[in-house]
């Protein structure tokens, strides 16, 4: 839809190009501000603060409201996506503190973490120590007992989900079926996850049954995870946890039950406030379990090959991919990577006396940690905002992690890493584009587990980076990178890696773009599991102001025509009703930046009395636009969803509200409506709220008004009037 919108809008080529490339880095930089500038931006409504704005800002205003309020947009001409502006908005957290308590290893610190360009550093000092080719099981385990699961096959190892999944062999015909045949699906309801859809291609899909109780010893966890997981996960366990299941919360138990079968999983109910860390811990357990088993298999086979008598024909030890990285974890901010590494360390440390050796820890803490001094103390933001933007929120990073049982190597070169933790932008800049000389994506060729966490945030960043990544995972490498082909699994040599890759996708919401990733880029032969719960009550029930809501339906012939149809509907049917001066203080909420540019250009062309705020608007332009709108000097305010996502300012003075499209995040609907209570004019009887929607907005509509109302509204072609009192 973004592409169609781009073509249909009157924006300049440069604006469209920058939206694709440099996106939101300059915006993120503005989050790192001093308490003084924040309090000025907040404009508490007092005249003193408004008067406190610098005279230079006012002088530069003149007649260029349509020019300088765009200043931030015009400012984004730097299209070099290898630059970023790191920013920290909150204080330290447990992950950073835990790392800080560990002794530094003397590695060269990175210096000032607020550097302006990503400094590529890779640890070459520990290459042989972490090499899978030159280490052996005895050295790895430290006691003469190699992991018994990698000794002669036993019943336990044959039942291990890892072995079952990776050892499955296919014929060419079966692989062709996976590529061409439609998936069969079935439904099931689980106690905690709710409504699940199971789908598969090769065989008739049989739904899993949720394990009511889980014995850690039966999960085939690699040591030391059996002993460390209950301790690491203890903060999430309540006192009411069953004695028979002391290790997992109900949500974790059901999620791990799916993960451990190596099915793909889409869970769209991740919440940074409630279950975010709970989910992060359980997918870290699964990823680490996979890596330890895979490495133990290689080291065990190294030992067998070493101990073979000269001249004897050895067994076929095919235990590797074409490249070493097995797990790719995509997260939005450095803080997320910090927490993941901390969880890995905790899971590998059997006791306080047996600390694992972590190389480059000091450097890692400097580059991924945050300074508690940098958080302005007077910020008033919703709790979910504080949870999402905790710690270091720089969005341009990538780091390789190599893991052996008693040690971890941070900043490992990608081709010597087991796990890669990165942001979509961090991946985009290393993958590059066609025609670029310096680009590399061979290290993605043998990814066995892909974890995409907080996928909804990438909709607010640049979704193109995620699509670009998905197109480059599990391709045949262009170079051999020194691999021993006698050890490479046949599935990798046959270029069938994508059929064995497990994808775990976590999001705060259902969205067509996220669904598309799961449906079009996931080919797991085991099948897929998607959580598909419908919202019974929408976010409209959280609106606390008494307000009439008018939902106006527009008829579009196809999904591709919705963008143009919406624009014409707004211009021809909605806007004329608001042109009258009586309908002043009208805020137009626009989720898409492309639609925003199109509307802004139309408003300029029609010479309407308006101001506008988007994610690229400079601080001075934001202050000015908010003040003009509050005082009624500007009749309209165009307002983008991304600006609201990154700033969460309360816009005062709203009397009429138009949702040009339903919000991406359902709770933004009630948040923006509730901004009206900040208006002290006492004219609530004249407040209005108008929402534009089409039949293609069913998911967003259900999240706002609930599933029952949505069904009625989609069946009826009439406008729907709702009067909300906060109890609806």
If you had to describe this structure to a student in words, what would you say it looks like?
The protein has 728 residues and is α/β, with parallel strands linked by helices. Among the domains are: 210-305 and 319-374 and 382-433 and 443-520, P-loop containing nucleotide triphosphate hydrolases (Rossmann fold), CATH 3.40.50; 539-725, Rossmann fold (3-Layer(aba) Sandwich), CATH 3.40.50.300. The protein contains 32 helices and 18 strands. It has an eleven-stranded mixed beta sheet. α30 (666-674) links the parallel β16 (656-659) and β17 (688-693). α9 (94-101) packs across α17 (334-348) and α14 crosses α17. The longest helix has 32 residues, at 276-307. It is elongated and about 95 Å long. The model is unreliable at 1-98, 100-118 and 139-154 (pLDDT under 50). Residues 1-164, 300-320 are annotated as: Disordered. Interacts with CAPN3; the interaction is required for CAPN3 translocation to the nucleolus. Residues 37-77 have a biased composition (Acidic residues). Belongs to the UTP25 family. Keywords: Developmental protein, Nucleus, Phosphoprotein.
Number of strands: 18
| CATH topology term of the domain at 210-305 and 319-374 and 382-433 and 443-520 | Rossmann fold
CATH class of the domain at 210-305 and 319-374 and 382-433 and 443-520: Alpha Beta
What's the N-to-C terminus distance?
A: 33 Å
Helix amount = 25-40%
Our count of helices gives 32
Percentage of residues in strands: 5-15%
GO molecular function, one term: rRNA binding
Protein name: U3 small nucleolar RNA-associated protein 25 homolog
Organism: Rhynochetos jubatus (kagu)
Domain UTP25 C-terminal: 539-723
């Amino acid at each position: 839809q973004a592409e169609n919108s781009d073509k249909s809008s009157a924006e300049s080529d440069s604006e469209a190009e920058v939206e694709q490339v440099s996106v939101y880095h300059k915006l993120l930089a503005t989050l790192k501000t001093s308490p003084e500038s924040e309090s000025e931006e907040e404009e508490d409504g007092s005249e003193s603060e408004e008067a406190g704005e610098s005279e230079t800002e006012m002088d530069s205003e003149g007649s260029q409201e349509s020019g300088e309020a765009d200043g931030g947009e015009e400012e984004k001409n730097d299209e070099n996506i290898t630059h970023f502006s790191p920013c920290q908005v909150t204080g330290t957290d447990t992950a950073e503190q835990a790392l800080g308590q560990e002794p530094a290893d003397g590695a060269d610190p990175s210096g000032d973490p607020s550097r302006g360009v990503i400094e590529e550093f890779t640890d070459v000092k520990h290459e042989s120590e972490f090499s899978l080719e030159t280490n052996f099981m005895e050295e790895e385990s430290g006691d003469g007992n190699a992991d018994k699961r990698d000794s002669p096959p036993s019943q336990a190892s044959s039942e291990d989900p890892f072995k079952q999944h990776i050892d499955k062999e296919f014929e060419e015909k079966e692989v062709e079926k996976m590529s061409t045949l439609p998936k069969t699906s079935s439904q099931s309801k689980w106690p905690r996850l709710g409504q699940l859809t199971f789908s598969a291609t090769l065989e008739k899909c049989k739904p899993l049954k949720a394990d009511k109780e889980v014995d850690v010893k039966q999960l085939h966890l690699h040591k030391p995870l059996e002993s460390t997981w209950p301790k690491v996960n203890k903060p999430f366990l309540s006192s009411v946890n069953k004695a028979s299941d002391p290790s997992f919360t109900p949500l974790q138990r059901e999620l791990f039950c799916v993960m451990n079968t190596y099915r793909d999983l889409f869970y769209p109910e991740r919440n940074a406030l409630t279950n975010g860390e709970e989910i992060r811990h359980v997918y870290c357990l699964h990823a680490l379990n996979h890596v330890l088993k895979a490495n133990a298999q290689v080291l065990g086979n190294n030992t067998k090959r070493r101990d073979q008598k000269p001249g004897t024909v050895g067994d076929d030890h095919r235990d590797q991919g074409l490249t070493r990285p097995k797990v790719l974890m995509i997260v939005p901010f450095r803080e997320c990577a910090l927490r993941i590494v901390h969880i890995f360390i905790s899971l590998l440390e059997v006791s306080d006396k047996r600390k694992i050796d972590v190389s480059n820890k000091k450097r890692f803490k400097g580059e991924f940690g945050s300074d508690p001094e940098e958080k302005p103390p007077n910020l008033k933001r919703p709790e979910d905002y504080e949870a999402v933007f905790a710690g270091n929120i720089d969005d341009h990073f990538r780091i390789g992690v190599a893991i052996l049982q008693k040690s971890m190597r941070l900043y490992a070169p990608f081709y010597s890493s087991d796990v890669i933790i990165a942001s979509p932008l961090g991946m985009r800049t290393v993958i590059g584009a066609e025609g670029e000389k310096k680009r590399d994506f061979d290290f993605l060729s043998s990814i066995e587990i892909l974890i995409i966490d907080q996928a909804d945030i990438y909709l607010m960043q640049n979704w193109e980076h995620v699509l670009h990544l998905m197109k480059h995972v599990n391709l045949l490498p262009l170079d051999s990178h020194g691999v021993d082909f006698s050890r490479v699994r046949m599935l990798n040599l046959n270029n069938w890696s994508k059929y064995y890759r497990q994808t775990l996708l976590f999001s705060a919401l259902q969205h067509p773009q996220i669904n598309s990733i799961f449906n079009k880029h996931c080919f797991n032969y085991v099948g897929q599991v998607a959580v598909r719960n419908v919202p019974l009550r929408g976010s409209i029930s959280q609106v606390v102001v008494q307000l009439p809501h008018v939902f106006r339906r527009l008829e579009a012939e196809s999904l591709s025509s919705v963008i143009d149809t919406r624009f014409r509907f707004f211009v021809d049917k909605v806007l004329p009703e608001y042109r009258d001066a009586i309908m002043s203080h009208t805020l137009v909420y626009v989720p898409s930046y492309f639609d925003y540019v199109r509307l802004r250009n139309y408003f300029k062309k029609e010479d309407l009395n308006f101001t506008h705020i988007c994610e690229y608007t400079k601080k001075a332009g934001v202050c000015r636009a908010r003040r003009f709108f509050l005082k009624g000097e500007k009749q309209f305010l165009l307002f983008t969803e991304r600006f609201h996502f990154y700033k969460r300012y309360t816009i005062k003075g709203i009397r009429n509200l138009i949702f040009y499209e339903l919000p991406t995040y359902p709770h933004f609907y009630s948040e923006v409506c509730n901004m009206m209570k900040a208006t002290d004019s006492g004219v609530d009887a004249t407040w209005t709220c108008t929402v534009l929607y089409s039949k293609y907005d069913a998911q967003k509509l259900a999240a706002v008004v609930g599933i029952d109302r949505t069904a009625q509204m989609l069946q009826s072609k009439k406008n729907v009037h709702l009067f909300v009192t906060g109890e609806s």
